[in-house]
Amino acid sequence: MRTLFWSLGLACSMSLVFPQTLLETGFEPPEFSLGNLTGQSGWQAFHFSTPNTALVSDALAFSGAQSVRVVPVSGASSSWWWKPIGYNTGGSGYITVIWDMYLGAGTIQAAYGIDCYDPDGFRIAAMRVNNLNRVQLVQDNGFTTTIIDTGTIYPRNTWARFKLELNYNTGRFRLIMNNRELGSANLNSAADTIFADADIWVNNITGNANDFGHYDNFRVVASSAPLPGADLNGDGCVDDADLLIVLFAFGSTDPIADVNGDGVVDDADLLEVLFSFGQGC
Ligand SMILES: [Ca+2]
Ligand SMILES: [Ca+2]
Ligand SMILES: [Ca+2]
Fold it and tell me: Ligand nearest 265 Cα, by number?
């Protein structure tokens, strides 16, 4: 299976067009139907023991009508869902994983995050929101896993936009939530240069979780430079689509349109978009 990813990576690496969208989905119909995510549009799953559940759901969506709803199952531990990417970075440039996440609160909570892997199953970089709502980076070096707490508390029962930016030039990755950088850590030096997949990951820490998580607008983008901060929809290019996001949210506290992260969407955010208009396009 991993050999297939590698072959795909060679094919992808032939393209020199940047930024390049490697995966983009809002889990919308007709590509996705309500029900199990696994098996739809090439999505796969692995469960450490008893499977947790990931459903294409219309219970909540950041945009459109559907998202993926992850529901921990009693007695289960970790589960991963992914669509193979297999992109060869050649050891330089950036891979950015972007997604909108909504975690419901519960009396017993699971940890939710994104895990990025190479074709051999080495975790390149990862993040999670743990059962106590702490936003954390997960750093591996091939031998040990280090959890790095960002000091940020994730607000459950609301949507947040995350970016996990892997910098192959420096061997570092950083985590951005709602346009604010929360922390950075080392890429796994034992991992190779092929980015195999970015996985939706739930760790049912207590084995009896009663919360849930939604993921929407899942994108993976390869680029030669960091995606511009004013690229609000995460397509790698600052254009009228990003301008409209700020204009429609003008005067609000919408964290996704708040480019400078000062808590309000105003002319300062508009100027940030205008000054970087055309960047990355
Ligand atoms: Ca959607
Ligand atoms: Ca954009
Ligand atoms: Ca602002």
Answer: 3
> Distance from the CA of 101 to the center of ligand 3, in angstroms?
21
Cβ-Cβ contacts under 8 Å for 1 (sequence gap 6 or more):
none
CATH number at 119 reads 2.60.120.200
Q: Say if residue 173's pLDDT is above 90.
A: yes
Ligand nearest, relative to CA of residue 264:
3
- 245 and 113 assigned to the same domain: no
Distance 273 CA to ligand 3 centre (A): 11
81, 155: one domain? yes
Mean local confidence (pLDDT), 187-196: 97
CA of 88 from ligand 1 middle (Å) equals 28
Amino acid at residue number 128:
R
**Which ligand sits closest to the CA of 278?**
2
What is the per-residue pLDDT for 158?
92
Ligand 1 mean position to 67 CA, how many Å?
5
Kindly give, in sequence order, each residue whose CB lies less than 8 Å from that of residue 172, ignoring residues fewer than 6 positions away.
Answer: 184, 185, 186, 187
Closest ligand to Cα 253: 3
Classify residue 136 by burial, with Cβ atoms within 10 Å: 0-12, 13-18, 19+: buried
Which ligand is located closest to the Cα atom of residue 57?
A: 1
Cis peptide before 84 (omega within 30 of 0): no
What separation in angstroms does the CA of 121 have from each of 22, 138, 164, 197, 245?
Answer: 19, 15, 18, 10, 37
